[in-house]
Amino acid sequence: MRWPAFKIGGLGFIAISYVSIDYLSHLSPTWHSRLQPALWSLLALAAIFRVPFYKHWSSEFRSAIPFLASMLFMLTTLLFEALSVRFVTAVLGLDWHSDAAPLPDTGQWLLLALNEKLPPAVVEILRARIIGLHHFLMLFIMLAFSVLFDSVKAPGLGLGARYMFTMAIGRLLRAITFVSTILPSARPWCAYSRFRVPPYPHRWAQKYYVPYAEDADTIRQLLNQDIAFADPGQILGDYRPDWGKMSFLLDFLRPTPSEGSSWYNLLKKAGGGCNDLVYSGHMLVAVLTAMAWTEAYGGLSSAVVWFFVIHSAQREIRERHHYSVDCVVAIYVGILLWKMTGFIWSAKDVTRRRKLVKLEKIQNKLVQAAKDADIDEVRELLKEIEVTSQESDNERNRGQSGVLWFFACATVFAALVIVLLAFTWTSDG
């Protein structure tokens, strides 16, 4: 049984209230400091009060392993992403970041043109920092916990597993994409303000990129010969602390003496990076939250969440955290990935739908068997419906097993990529 407040859109009201109260930190810090703790306390007490009456603990326990596997997969991809972010920043050196001009972005031009055409009040709304990454994460947490109130289909851990698994796939694809081709930042000063990598390129880039970076005739010869023929001159080396078994990361992270001797601390500093990281990780989180909200809860509130997504996208472009292409790609990639992972959790009751389809097919036979008082035939027909239900359960279990297998394969893949690149760079040096 649903709680009335949630049934008529209470979850959407609470979500909008949370975003509005958090925005008070920009308008009235005093009221923000009063209302935010009150809201969280109210939500926590409501959840605690509801826990003893929750009826779906068995399904939650069955979803625990896929959820934990998805979390582990997510952490693995975040580690790989952090390594990739540091790599694309360090491999060409700080001088390249300051000299490389930003890419032409028609989306940025359009927003600047709209600033001249739209009323000032509308422009201020577009510029306002209404919602950020942490808001989308908290909106999803609210959504998952709302299973306690039967406003979202249980299990909540199943919904969480699908969210984390989809996001992990998205982050892995994102890292593979932006590490493939290094693009200049929309903020040329970013790398100098955040990183302490060497100013000059890595020896790999000095040999394979620098001699062919600008001269068209040299590039034409490179295409014809398909071999690095230019003399790079005296190749500059890097600072190489003793990292033991992790020393293969030196060529990826390119540490400097001022950054300390820990490889882990360098990865923690990677953050969002300064290059153009196709596609936007922030927008991926926003789109997955909107997709989860639309499927699990729906209603007018889902339209509001999608408005937040679009608002966040134009702000990413307006503030030059990303190019327009990063936000556009993140939107359709997020939508497609979410559509592909419905085998983990879905708001649609697949088993019930298949039972109804099967019942429609055998309806005439069942009616005729009842008229003939043929009990054995009735039992056989009902058994067919039960078999259909068991097949649906088996497919769901195979889908959950697929999560574990994909996690294992993706982890092995990431490890192989790192080892292969480390071997290539080490043998080249």
Would you mind describing this structure in some detail?
Pfam families: PAP2_C. This is Sphingomyelin synthase-like domain-containing protein. By secondary structure, the chain is mainly alpha-helical. The protein folds into 2 domains: 4-195 and 269-342, no CATH class; 349-429. Helix content is 70%, strand content 0%. It is built from 20 helices and no strands. It has helices spanning 4-7, 10-27, 29-50, 57-62, 64-90, 93-99, 106-117, 120-127, 133-145, 156-180, 190-194, 203-208, 216-225, 250-253, 263-268, 281-296, 300-318, 324-340, 350-371, 375-428. Helix 2 runs parallel beside helix 17 (300-318), helix 16 (281-296) packs parallel to helix 18 and helix 19 packs antiparallel against helix 20. The longest helix is centred in the C-terminal third of the chain and has 54 residues, at 375-428. The radius of gyration is 27 Å and the shape is globular. The chain starts with a helix and ends with a helix. The model is unreliable at 1-8 (pLDDT under 50).
